[in-house]
TrEMBL record:
Organism this protein belongs to: Salinarimonas ramus
Superkingdom in the source lineage: Bacteria
Function: Part of the tripartite ATP-independent periplasmic (TRAP) transport system.
Protein name: TRAP transporter large permease protein
Membrane topology field: Multi-pass membrane protein
Length: 442
């Protein structure tokens, strides 16, 4: 049996282990260790490569970005910045068609610029936006679907943990990945807004329980407006954080790691100023930061070990030759790759997909002439769709469990996210066909 055949068999074994319930980090380590041992017939070499990978895999100053951005996101979540952002967006946009839906997307867009985790956005805005939307006559399932659908912006608008993980796996600049995510992220947010307004006009009963009463409530001018000073006070913390982190990063004043440190410190000051951080909450935040960061770093070590096994088996080169001989061409390969990721998104979580696919696909994409930053945005967009597609749909399950409403079934929330999936597919096609959308500011 050739090393190439063994390599494909070990990839299949990895997928089977993950589907069987084994944690992705342990599955990657086990498959990579066994693969190197079997392919080279040398147990000592497998142990030696595991030792080298465990040290060199994360022995870089750059990896400090992970705990720092995680800490910033958690501090922002406990300081109620998300709630304030939604309240201001609601005040400014409530007279628009589907105003509260648009406000949810707008608040998610701003919130994503300081958290980087879709699940955090989903949990925060389920508590904040859904009750307010229901109170104004929006259907409960549509409200939950709007929160779940717009929460995926956290994985694309920088800073994003998925962009960091992709940057590490593909060995491209994390700062460059953040910059590449700006235009596609705004395209996605704009697409969501246009879709919500169109659906409300064409299918009002899908959105509202009583369209006529909701219209009267939307146009009601007797409601006391929020004072400008209150709006400014609510927006200042998140605006300052966005300017500190993204402004410093994009102007080149901060490295990604320094931006994470400044953002975490700024978020700490915001939480302390708002008196939303006591000893118990601080301990919970620090503990959760450690758990999330160690989990991600362990995954990156395992993915690096897995990449070495693939290289020893000669898989990336072999697959690149196979694609070149098949006559698919670069965009044929990109189409096939995207379809595979979309299918995997139905059964695996986002991080697992990146860890399995990027070490194989990134070298092939580079050999075919793709800019790896553009390729990464296409990858993350495709992976994001998996957050909304059944049966896995992590964002949908997060919203449903946080909502805890017996009248709203998980199937109803999945149905309400279908328009968001359609918009994401359109943006995915546009970004894939027009690389400038991702490379404009690089």
């Amino acid at each position: 049996m050739t090393t190439l055949t063994l390599g494909f068999l070990f990839i299949g074994l990895l997928v089977v282990l993950v589907l069987a319930g084994m944690q992705i980090a342990y599955a990657l380590l086990a498959v990579a260790f066994t693969g190197i041992w079997v392919i080279r017939d040398n147990l000592g070499l497998a142990f030696r490569m595991l030792e080298l990978t465990a040290y060199s895999g994360i022995a870089d100053y750059l990896f400090a970005t992970i705990p720092l951005f995680v800490l910033m996101g958690l501090l922002v979540s406990v300081s109620n910045v998300g709630r304030d952002t939604f309240e201001v967006a609601e005040e400014l946009l409530r007279r628009l068609i589907c105003g509260l839906g648009v406000a949810t997307v707008a608040a998610n867009t701003v919130f994503a610029a300081v958290t980087g985790v879709s699940i955090a956005s989903a949990a925060v805005f389920t508590r904040v936006a859904v009750p307010e939307m229901k109170r104004h006559g929006y259907r409960a399932a549509f409200s939950a679907g709007t929160v779940a659908g717009s929460s995926v912006l956290g994985m694309l608008i920088p800073p994003s943990l998925l962009l960091i993980i992709y940057g590490v796996l593909a060995e491209v600049s994390i700062g460059g990945m953040f910059i590449a995510g700006i235009v596609p992220g705004l395209m996605l947010a704009g697409g969501f807004v246009a879709m919500l307004m169109t659906i409300t006009v064409l299918f009002p009963r899908f959105v509202l329980t009583d369209p006529k009463a909701s219209r009267e409530r939307r146009l009601d001018r007797t409601r006391e407006p929020m004072p400008l000073s209150t709006m400014v006070a609510k927006l200042v913390p998140i605006v300052v954080l966005v300017v500190l982190v993204l402004g410093g990063l994009y102007t080149g004043y901060f490295t990604p790691t320094e931006a994470g440190g400044v953002g975490a410190f700024g978020a700490l000051l915001v939480a302390l100023a708002r008196r939303s951080l006591n000893r118990r909450k601080l301990w919970q935040v620090m503990k959760q930061t450690g758990v999330i960061s160690v989990s991600i770093l362990l995954l990156l070590i395992a993915a690096s070990f897995y990449s070495r096994m693939l290289s020893i088996a000669g898989l990336p080169n072999a697959i690149a030759d196979l694609v070149a001989q098949s006559g698919f061409g670069p965009y044929g390969f990109l189409l096939l790759y995207t379809i595979i990721i979309l299918l995997m998104g139905m059964i695996l979580d986002s991080t697992s997909i990146l860890l399995i696919m990027v070490p194989i696909a990134a070298p092939i994409a580079l050999g075919m002439g793709f800019d790896l930053s553009h390729f990464g945005i296409v990858t993350v967009l495709a992976v994001e769709i998996g957050l909304l597609t059944p049966p896995f749909g992590l964002s949908v399950f997060t919203v449903h469990s946080t909502l805890d409403d017996p009248d709203v079934s998980i199937e109803q929330v999945f149905s309400a996210t279908m328009p968001f999936i359609a918009v994401m597919l359109v943006v995915l096609v546009l970004v894939a066909l027009f690389p400038l959308t991702a490379t404009l500011f690089l």
